[in-house]
Amino acid sequence: MLMCGLIILTVCAVDAVGYVWHRFVAHGDTFVARPHKRHHEDDYPPQHFFSETYRANYDPAWYVPAAIVVAAILALPLGLWTRGAMVSVAVAYALVLNGLHWRFHIQGHPWLKWGWYQDLVRYHIRHHHMNANYGIVAFVMDRLMGTWR
């Protein structure tokens, strides 16, 4: 039971840190925001949201939120195996989020046949049009912070 709670806590931490980073850093007025602004303005502006292949925006700044979550987990007074499991969950969840995100931008992606996936793409398109939906895939933080549209 404890491990289930820690897994849920880990997923929530990844979402919360990712949301804060995306909303206040990646969309802020700092040099760190430049690559993400390129993603919105050059790679995938609202009028050209889709492409045949993903135009990768390899922004090393996105490793910072992951490092924050991993460092926080490693600092917890828990056993090595427990912390290792939590780090594994955090990394796996971040990879799933990233994988879903780049698929959102692929024209005619096979997953578009599923309604849940169409909804996620629609929410992400709104993110490229307005200051909303910073969660990209999971919108719990957007709902809590009033930025979900």
From the spread of the alpha carbons, the general shape counts as: globular
Number of strands: 0
Cα distance, first to last residue?
34 Å
Strand content bin: under 5%
The total domain count is 1
Sequence of secondary-structure elements: HHHHHH
Number of helices: 6
Largest sheet: none
Q: What is the rounded Rg?
A: 16 Å
Helix content: 55-70%
- In round numbers, the mean pLDDT is 91
- Unreliable parts: none
Structural class by SSE content: mainly alpha
Strand-helix topology:
Blueprint: H1 2-26, H2 34-43, H3 63-75, H4 80-104, H5 115-129, H6 140-145
Helix pairs in contact: 1-3, 1-4, 3-4
Overview of this protein structure:
By secondary structure, the chain is mainly alpha-helical. It contains 6 helices and no strands. The protein has helices at residues 2-26, 34-43, 63-75, 80-104, 115-129, 140-145. The mean pLDDT is 91.
Summarize the structure.
The protein is 63% helix and 0% strand.
Primary descriptors:
mainly alpha; globular
